[in-house]
Every structure is written in structure tokens, then in C-alpha cells.
Amino acid sequence: MIEPNGFRLASIIDRPDLHRQLLGDYTGAYSLGVTSNGRRGGEALLLRVEAENPRGFAREVFFEGRKIPVIVQGSFRRPKALGRKRVA
Questions:
Q1: Exposed/middle/buried for 12, CB within 10 Å: 0-12, 13-18, 19+?
Q2: What sections of 1-88 are H helices per DSSP?
Q3: DSSP 8-class letter at 19
Q4: How far is C-alpha 42 from the chain's CA centre?
């Protein structure tokens, strides 16, 4: 998705400074992605963390001069690797 001003969240999603700003001192497993912001239209960051009831995470961040909405969801589980297939 492209915001009306041409800015794409997908272009900054891998930036370590953005992750640090969102996570603070959180050290658990998490997932960060881009989703639509249904209430206002446009894009939002989707932060999923391990806690069932996540508290203390920002609901919006200011990054590169832009105010970006953040949707925080709990109960994230770290993906497990699939087992190797045995060749007979």
C-alpha cells in the first residue's frame, strides 16, 4: 500500500532504529508487519508480542517526521522449524 503522500511503511519495516523505538526494553519474541488501518484508511504497523495482554507498547510512533499508527496484538508464538523429511 502507498500512503497518499507516497510514503510506504514496507520501505522502513526492516530498520533496526524503528524496531528499537517500538520495542524499548522488550526482549521476547515478536513479529512486525504492515497492515491496513481500517478506522482511518491507509497503513499501520502490526506488532505482535508474546504477552497475552500486551501493555506499555506505543499505539503510534513518530518516525522520520511521520506519525505512524501501531496495532499491538498479544499471544504471538515463535514459529517452529519443520522437521526434515527422511529420504528412503
A1: middle
A2: 16-23
A3: H
A4: 15
Please report, to the nearest 10 degrees, the dihedral formed by the alpha carbons of residues 9, 28, 23, 8 taken in order. Answer: 0
**DSSP string spanning 64-85?**
TTEEEEEEEE----PPPPPPPP
**Domain interval for residue 16:** 9-73
- In three-state secondary structure terms, 47 is strand
46 and 33 Cβ atoms separated by less than 8 Å: yes
Number of domains observed in the structure of the chain? 1
Question: Quick check: is 67 in a domain?
Answer: yes
Length of the chain measured in residues? 88
Residue 20 within a domain: yes
| The three three-digit cell numbers of residue 33, written as one number | 508487519
Instruction: Give tens-digit pLDDT for 5-51.
Output: 456 888 899 999 999 999 999 999 999 999 988 766 788 999 999 98
